[in-house]
Amino acid sequence: MTNGYQQFRPSEAFRSLVDAYWINRPDAPRAAGGAPVDRVLPDGCIDLVFRGGANGGALFSSALIERPVFFDGAHQRWYVGVRFRPAMARALLDIDPVECRDRNIPAREIDAGFGVLERALQDCASAEEALAVLKRAIDARLVRREREAAPARALGITERSLYRDMLRWSGLAPKPLARILRLQRTLAALRAGRLPLALIAAHMANAHQAHMNREMKVLAGATPAELAARPVRNLQDAA
After folding, report:
1. Number of structural domains found in the chain
2. Which of 27, 45, 83, 237 has the fewest Cβ atoms within 10 Å of its own Cβ atom?
3. Which residues form the domain of 100?
4. Residue 190 pLDDT
5. Are residues 19 and 59 located together in one domain of the fold?
6. Residue 158: strand, helix, or coil
7. Are residues 109 and 9 in the same domain?
8. What contacts 179, CB < 8 A, 6 or more positions away?
9. What is the pLDDT of residues 218-227, one digit of tens each?
10. Closest by CA position to 13, among listed 125, 91, 67
């Protein structure tokens, strides 16, 4: 470990998945004789890493290594990252860890949403700011994953089993089915006409009213306000 490297504990709720958040700043010139001074040893972990620099920087998942990797101690870039515990990176990255054997993978190839995070990190003026942005984004994603996995745990089955069974019985994966069922509950609340839109959004577990508006626009072709003013007849309404 070099003097430029620091690591920080994750939130208590995520310690079973996340080993640490970390930051690595540029170091002093390399040791006499030109020997490399940064040594990364195999640990069975995959990291999500942002490499800062003058050219904007890049977000990527780190390689799973089986041999030590050395870096020049005179590097001029700073790095920030989150290190997942062994076998836990898949909980967030949606990637087969075998694909990470001995190679880094650009994060936006894993999930288009990581492209948004990468651009936010590129706008950061310092490693400290980038680490704060990365931590907020990863913690938020972990919260969402926790909510998605809760139904499977309540049924006493694995998340993969729930996915397979839902697809078999409904023809839809759990997330699209949940969005459609929420659409139908929202339509029922709009037809009842007893609650303001902000409360309907909260009761239907939307992140906020704007989120409900976007979902309704995609699934129903109109915003809740438009549907409330001009009700749309559903198959469920037919006698």
Report:
1. 2
2. 237
3. 5-149
4. 79
5. yes
6. coil
7. yes
8. 215, 219
9. 877 777 777 7
10. 91
